[in-house]
């Protein structure tokens, strides 16, 4: 049997915010950065602002930059607002129209993820979760059913980042193979 601490994969006992932060920072965020780099990052020849399908198509898709910007909104809403209890303004719909530079958004996402342990501790101290700002999720039903917990929120953040990483990787693959239609 191998020693889990030898690879740096030791479990983070009793600190779910730090455990989720570790998964995000060691696995998911580097993969996001790699996919964005494959698309050219913020270079002049970049594909980060190109969607694989036309905006008016029957199957509209998001650009890589919009997906990264949306993930900043996800972590802000569920981390800062819901866990941390911070006042947050979020316009979820506008996140998908983002057309600014992607590098600063990746850095912003890193900084937001770094705060997950702090926000998780704040939720434990308060003993309750605040309403996440600008979410499409039915929080009131989850509260009534008793499933709206700190662990669920952290799992939801992981789920959203992992799911959108998959979208970003598919976007990259389609764009780099030239399968998209202008």
Helix content class: 55-70%
Structural class: mainly alpha
Based on the structure, what is the oligomeric state of the protein chains?
A: single chain
What share of residues are in beta strands? under 5%
State mean pLDDT (0 to 100 scale).
90
Q: Give the terminus-to-terminus CA distance.
A: 53 Å
Low-confidence stretches: 1-12
CA-atom Rg in angstroms: 18 Å
Q: How is the biggest beta sheet arranged?
A: none
Order of helices and strands: HHHHHHH
Task: Tell me the overall shape.
Answer: globular
Please report the total strand number as a whole number: 0
The total count of helices amounts to 7
Account of the 3D structure:
- With 182 residues, this protein is mainly alpha-helical.
- It has seven helices and no strands.
- It is globular and about 50 Å long.
Provide tags for this entry.
182 residues; mainly alpha; disordered N terminus
Write the SSE topology.
Blueprint: H1 16-38, H2 64-83, H3 92-95, H4 103-114, H5 116-126, H6 139-145, H7 150-176
Helix pairs in contact: 1-4, 1-5, 1-7, 2-4, 2-5, 2-7
Task: Give a quick summary of the entry.
The protein is mostly helical. It is 57% helix and 0% strand. Helix 2 packs parallel to helix 4 (103-114).
